[in-house]
Write a structure and sequence with these properties.
Elements: E1 2-9, E2 12-19, H1 21-36, H2 51-81, E3 91-93, H3 98-105, E4 111-118, E5 132-137, H4 142-155, E6 159-161, E7 171-180, E8 183-196, E9 218-224, E10 238-251, H5 258-263, H6 269-303, H7 310-331, H8 342-369, H9 376-388, H10 394-403, H11 405-427, E11 429-434, H12 437-441
Parallel strand pairs: 5-11
Antiparallel strand pairs: 1-2, 2-4, 3-4, 6-10, 7-8, 7-10, 9-10
Helix pairs in contact: 1-2, 4-6, 7-8, 8-11, 9-10, 9-11, 10-11
């Protein structure tokens, strides 16, 4: 085998490889001899088929297999001899002309091919004990628990049919069709929609205009969408809703007591509050984890600067950009609606793609050096948990993951990342910072990458 390096720029390598025809022919002959004792051909006893006859029948396919194996072995030797770590599988370019291919297959000429490699960078890991992170911690107060229980009670308040006009606090069931400048708009219609007047669940001004409406009556409700409304196509627009009431109900008494807790499947009000507190604590812990993890990743990004494999970045960008375009299309929005241009958005998402790839390589390096692994049992538990999210389809979900390696990998990757994060947080200087619930859930000025 003759190997000539033709490129060594950054993380890219390229080689021209020559595999002698004599070596390929010898391997093909060995393979044909092996087949002699295995193939069954009419007119010949087992093991007595002449090699020349086997070659006539299977020579081309055998040589193709030999070439494929020889190329794989040659590429592996190149990687090993040069101490390379590949970021992606080798990109092989074999002879393309029909005459060249025929000549190689027939063992008349050497096989000359090119192989392009993209390698992983050498990563110098920093001192993780130098990383300082503030861990925001919000204590769950009794008032927060009581507020949540009150909202549960409000959601379960009994209502009874009422004759006459709807008043504030009543629940009115309505059908409505919204329009702007006389043209109905998407998402502006509903049937048998219950509205609690005064709950502030609808567009400002909508609920108040339902006061005085009785079952069977119709009314036009005029409102203005808030300027910061989720849909830019509706934000700040004046709209009219043709509303028809089908039922009016008055609120019943709401008692927050043991009986109420029992109606929700709890032994007592105290037990209900304990369950609510546990749920809020879990939610707070999740929000804390996300902020701490983001701070850790920011620290790793700031202290690890190196070139990243361009193809990995390109693949990551394509995935991110495709999702961005899909989201904009579904929401019927443009880059201008987002306050940017397509060019600027591309630059920003390119930066995000590079950051993700770089952090992924850093986390992988940390995991490898410290023998951090995800066990099969941990992956199995993740599959079970995912299956539970689809009641009635558990077996189908289970079968899908068990027979789809890529799907299993999609579960293993985040498990590995979280284990590496836990490892790093044990080493980092983490200090707790008491914060309010509002501060804990306040969104970062920049979106997490």
């Amino acid at each position: 085998m003759q190997v000539t390096e033709t490129q060594a720029e950054g993380l890219k390598r390229a080689y021209t490889v020559v595999l002698p025809a004599a070596e390929l022919d010898a391997k093909a002959k060995d393979r044909l001899i092996e087949l002699k004792d295995k193939v069954k051909i009419n007119g010949f006893r087992p093991g007595k088929v002449p090699v020349a006859h086997i070659k006539a029948l299977y020579g081309k396919s055998v040589m193709a297999e030999v070439i494929d194996q020889a190329v794989t072995e040659a590429n592996g030797k190149i990687v090993e001899d040069n101490g390379l770590r590949l970021a992606l599988p080798p990109k092989v370019e074999l002879p393309q002309s029909e005459d060249e291919v025929k000549s190689v297959i027939e063992g008349l000429t050497d096989l000359t091919y090119t192989v392009e490699l993209e390698v992983l960078p050498k990563i110098e890991l920093g001192n993780f004990k130098d990383i300082a992170i503030e861990k925001p911690v919000a204590i769950v107060t009794d008032a927060e628990v009581d507020e949540t229980v009150t909202r549960l009670a409000e959601g379960n308040r009994p209502y009874t049919p009422k004759d006459g006009a709807a008043a504030s606090g009543d629940r009115i069931t309505v059908d409505f069709v919204g329009s702007i400048d006389g043209v109905p708009f998407d998402g502006g219609a509903g049937e048998a929609v219950p509205v609690v007047i005064g709950s502030n669940s609808f567009i400002p001004g909508f609920e108040e205009q339902l006061i005085g409406l009785s079952a069977g009556e119709e009314r036009t409700v005029n409102v203005t969408f808030p300027v910061n409304y989720l849909s830019d196509t509706l934000a700040g627009k004046d709209a009219s809703f043709a509303v028809k009431a089908s039922a009016v109900e008055a609120p019943g008494e709401m008692a927050i007591d043991d009986a109420f807790a029992t109606s929700l499947g709890q032994e007592s009000l105290e037990k209900l509050k304990e369950q609510v507190r546990e749920r809020i604590v879990k939610e707070h812990d999740g929000a804390t984890r996300q902020k701490v993890k983001r701070a850790l990743l920011d620290a790793l990004d700031a202290t690890h600067k190196f070139d990243v494999p361009p193809t990995l970045v390109s693949q990551e960008f394509d995935g991110v950009w495709g999702q961005v375009q899909q989201d904009l299309a579904q929401q019927k929005r443009t880059f201008a609606d987002e306050g940017t241009t397509e060019e600027d958005a591309r630059v920003e998402y390119q930066r995000i793609a590079e950051r993700r790839v770089r952090l992924g390589l850093v986390l992988a390096e940390i995991g490898e050096r410290n023998n951090i692994q995800v066990t099969d049992d941990e992956v199995t538990r993740a599959v079970v948990e995912r299956a539970r999210q689809f009641p009635g389809q558990e077996q189908q979900v289970w079968d899908y993951y068990r027979r789809t390696p890529q799907a299993m990998a999609s579960l293993r990757a985040p498990l590995f990342e979280e284990k590496v994060v836990d490892f790093l947080l044990e080493l980092a200087n983490v200090t707790e910072k008491p914060v309010s619930r509002e501060e804990l859930y306040k969104e970062d000025e920049e979106k997490a990458a």
